[in-house]
Hints:
Elements: H1 3-8, H2 12-22, H3 24-33, H4 43-46, H5 59-70, E1 74-75, E2 87-88, H6 95-105, H7 112-115, E3 128-133, E4 139-145, E5 150-156, H8 172-183, E6 199-204, E7 218-223, H9 225-233, H10 244-248, E8 261-264, E9 269-273, E10 282-288, E11 297-300, E12 303-304, E13 311-315, E14 319-327, E15 330-343, E16 350-352
Parallel strand pairs: 9-15
Antiparallel strand pairs: 1-2, 3-4, 4-5, 6-7, 8-10, 10-13, 11-12, 11-14, 14-15, 15-16
Amino acid sequence: MRVRIALANSLNIPAVRVLEKIGVPTFLERLHQLGFTHLQQTPEYYGLGLTLGSGEVSLWELAQAYHTIAQQGNITPLITTIPHAPSPMPHAPNPTTWQLITDMLSDHYARATSFGVNSVLNLPFPAAVKTGTSSNFRDTWTVGFTTDYTVATWVGNFNGEPMRQVSGVTGAAPLWNRIMLHLHERQEPDAFPSPAGLTKLPICAVTGLKPTPDCNSVVQEYFYPQDKIAYTTQQDFNLSSEYNEWLAQQPTSSLVANNLRILSPHDGALFLLYPGGEGQQKLEFKLAGNQSTSAVEWWLNGEKLDSQTNSLFWYLRPGKWTLEARSGEKHDKVSFQVDAAKIHPSRRGFSVVSSQINSDRNSP
């Protein structure tokens, strides 16, 4: 999932994964720098939900923060009594970062998956926008800006009661749209500046890598100079094995056509067979990349299995197993282990019989 698509469509899992990597304390400090003074609890109190809105903020603070994005990192108080020049945010990224975020939030096509191409968020001039909906539809938000104005709208009940299934795009967004059109009815705003120092290059929409002949969906994306080197020297399509199953489910199935891959089980996986589970617990043998006319052959510990399909189920049996798939000249092989489990005499649950088990192995 590209950052552009995840941000524009308000996808939760990518946001949580990013926060998990950078840490809640770092993120909370940045929010304080952006003017969110109401966030006074500890990082542990908010947890990873902070990136999804677990911290309560005011509409005023939200408008201030998005105005800072519009000003490329320069903080300008919304109301001042003494005119002064904008000051940069402490430890602010260079303008390129702010420009790149603005470019993502103003991309009509990037948010099409969730909102459609011709949604109420689209204006007849360049505008960056983001929506939000609180838990239980208690209130909805839409905040966005042009090169001339920043507008933040909130729709909800003043007593805090939930609304009736009203989301950000159906509640606050129409109001934001009307205000923006009114503000710009006499003169349209200028276009946003392109991210400074970055270069647009074609990438495969599915993999995010340089397109190969197998990719049938190509888009343009910005690259930093240091990343352009890796792009230009890329030889072949290659993603780590953790993406194999996901790739096999994509419409662009030809991405895995030249590489026969066993998706399940994973190489080195460990499975537990519960007492009485023989003949009941099944493991799926799943294959990707078998697009040739040759039938697939499955081999388990040197014995050929009675199946020629890309997926079959095998009843678990204790032991160390080597699974191989063959189709024409292509083949793939993985090893896995099945251990018996028994009821522990002193506590409920199960324990493993074998004493030689690696702690980093996968188990369901």
